[in-house]
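Notes from hallway chat w/ T.B., transcribed later so I don't forget. T.B. wanted the structure written out for a chain they're using in a teaching module, and asked if we could keep both sequence and structure tokens in one place. Agreed to drop them here.
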Amino acid sequence: MPRVLVDLLSYTGTKGGMETYTRELYRALGRMHGDYEYIGFASREGATLDLTWFPGRIIESGISGENRFVWAWGELTRVARAAKREAVDLVHSPATLGPRRTAMPAVVTMHDMLYWSHPEYMSTPLYTAPVKWMEKAAARNATRVITISPDSAAEIVKYLGVDDRRLDVIPLAGTPPQGVDRTQAGSEGPLILAMGNRRPHKNWGALIRASSLLPPERRPRIVVTGGRGDDPLAPLVQSLGMDDSVDLRGWVDEAEVRRLYSVATALAIPSFAEGFSLPTLEAMGAGIPVLLSDIGVHRFVGGDAARYFDPADDAALARLLDQIVQDAALRAQLAQAGRARAAEFTWERTARETRESFDRALALSR
């Protein structure tokens, strides 16, 4: 029975999409029949969370996943020591970074190459060089590299020099919150929902600027969730006089997400770059029309079930916001197409193809 040490040092309850990936992947792996055993190597913070989704034993590392320096040292060295101590056959690092060297095969899931492709959008430039070095080290050690879109795969080859024969492109899936009631859509007036952190590549300012171009009587309310601490979007909102039209929110609980999904007119994502787009699939699965910036990853995820705009053209986005608010037939069309598109991406598929990647790594080892 192959034994896998799963690197959960970055899992702290605050990392968004990568944590959703880890949680849903291993929940689905646990439902699969087979002869794999999983051991989770958890951060100090993660060990205090509900980890019942993990299909195996948890080791408490005592390493903080929030202290960047302690965490980095843990990734580079302590994961490998734990793997050797547990005599596992394989290490999986699901959050882009991983050990520098392991005695056994390793698989690393690399979600994006934004530190390489768009360093100008990184909100923590001090960490750019160390993160790039750690990504190189993890990729060099890995027997196989999993990534989540063709765009990310091309960038891993370009920036890290990974042979594409070691790469597995395995898309994610979306899980809309339970209990969403789309009969309530529009019950609070036109509402455009945006969900995500405030890193510069997310380009949330475009959504606020575009909305400001519309006449006040045709202007939808913009709700942007996912902020932490002082919101960097607040000065823009104030300078445009949009305080009554824009609601900047922090992290919201499941009940509030369910309510927002129920009442929203549409979801909008104006990003300049992404590794994937989980919010797109989650919104589509719930029947919410989706407006996306016209980048390769969004086309890969949204297909023909979304409407696209140039993320650098505020006027074009303003016209699309106005159209989605005014055109009920378009909203119905996108909702139907979105549900069908989201159904093509499942966590069962992600888990199955991930297990195949593990099999390939172990076969190469043998």
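Follow-up for T.B.: The chain has two domains: 3-173+346-365, 182-342. Might be a good example for the class.
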